[in-house]
């Protein structure tokens, strides 16, 4: 095995290898014993299954916040456990290489933290590539050609839009409002309109599970009555969920659309012809492509695999080191 392409996200971590494609796609969550914070008990789906029923003495940690590392120790523990799970029978003595995707707006300090963690977790020769570049590559676009690609990425903790051309960034905007904030908006809505108290996990299930058509079963959410504390069920219409998240979605899209102000006219011509590419789990939210089209005045194409295209692109970078070199300058 040569190495890994890694997308360490606020909500999900996705890992690929050139030989096997995507080998891990799990929530970015780490469970540790409170007394031994740097020893992983479990990660990913198994850790998220424990949420809302975590026994005392065990702590849940989100090792990535808003797309970047906040604590070196826990991030190292998490990445080591991720690599172990991604390739459990790795031969010792052959340290794999890695290409890690990072937000386009990452600071030099955040880049150094990511490199340090990746090296300490057992990778040698680590390259960093901006997420929109990896996402574009993962969707079959060429980020080195002399034509502009506009990529919008709505993740769990960050939303970004980046215009790429010929190995460089023409324009970029980001905000730290994304999928997690949409969950919180649903949570507040349920409390205000239905007097129902739910956790973020339930709010996320309502967001992701909103029926697409009137023929589908309506969505039923379970929570506690705000007054009595008793368990209660509420049937939610899709329109209600859309109403709950619309103000947050609108504010994300408006912040990002300012990216067009910095684009030269010819670059706008390119993106008018090609359309903008929407990636990240948030791009699957109903109504988002229409909102983006209205705010940017451009056609929008949602990636075929919005949740994994960044890791696919980071993996592809192992065969295209010229992409990493161009965009790390
Ligand atoms: N079908 C769906 N509809 C709406 N939102 C969705 C859907 N599926 C996943 N999401 C949301 O996508 C977000 C996760 O997306 P993604 O995995 O791209 O983010 P991330 O890379 O972990 O985060 P970041 O890029 O901010 O670090 C979560 O907020 C999740 O609720």
TrEMBL record:
Residues that hold ATP according to the record: 10-12, 156-158
A GO cellular component entry from the record: cytoplasm
SUPFAM superfamilies for this protein: Actin-like ATPase domain
GO biological process: cell morphogenesis; regulation of cell shape
Domain of life, source organism: Bacteria
Assembly notes: Forms polymers.
Protein name from the UniProt record: Cell shape-determining protein MreB
Organism: Rhodococcus coprophilus
Biological classification of the source: Bacteria, Bacillati, Actinomycetota, Actinomycetes, Mycobacteriales
